[in-house]
Amino acid sequence: MFSKPMTTRDKKQRPNKSLRVFNGCRIASGEISAKYDRFACSYDWIEGIPDLLGVGRLRRSLFSRVSGAVLEVAVGTGKNFPYYPPGCRITAVDVSMEMLNIARKRAAKLSMDISFSLVERKLSPLQTTASILLFPR
């Protein structure tokens, strides 16, 4: 469960670097990872609804233009993998180990060679020549 909502006094104090503010609540980085770890097994099923409403067509359209080195941030379960054109060199990062495990299995089924990384801290500064794709889960 989320920590207690922030008060005005809390906001004036220097924030703890391990906490993120979401909708006025303080959330530890580990809490976010744990929540996505628990959600990972049902993520694709829940995301199937937007896919039925056309998100799959949007993904196909967007990814048909991608080439070269790609960094996919918040890769989740790898739902974008089938839409990448051949020849892309993909690095996939996420805060959830369980999401990455599902993404690895998806990449293996698709015979895709993808580099995976668990990110426990913010990604900045990034020293890369990759195209950066930011997709919400």
Percent in strands: 15-25%
Number of strands: 6
> Would you identify the CATH H-level superfamily?
Vaccinia Virus protein VP39
The rounded Rg comes to 17 Å
Query: Main sheet?
Result: 4 strands, parallel
Number of domains: 1
- The percentage helix is 25-40%
Count of individual helical segments: 3
At the first level of CATH, what is the class? Alpha Beta
What is the spatial order of strands in the main beta sheet? 5-4-3-6
Low-confidence runs of at least 5 consecutive residues: 1-23, 123-131
Sum up the overall morphology in one term: globular
Order of SSEs: HEEHEEHEE
Classification by helices and strands? alpha/beta
What's the overall average pLDDT, rounded? 76
Amino- and carboxy-terminal Cα gap: 20 Å
According to CATH, the fold-level topology is: Rossmann fold
CATH architecture descriptor name: 3-Layer(aba) Sandwich
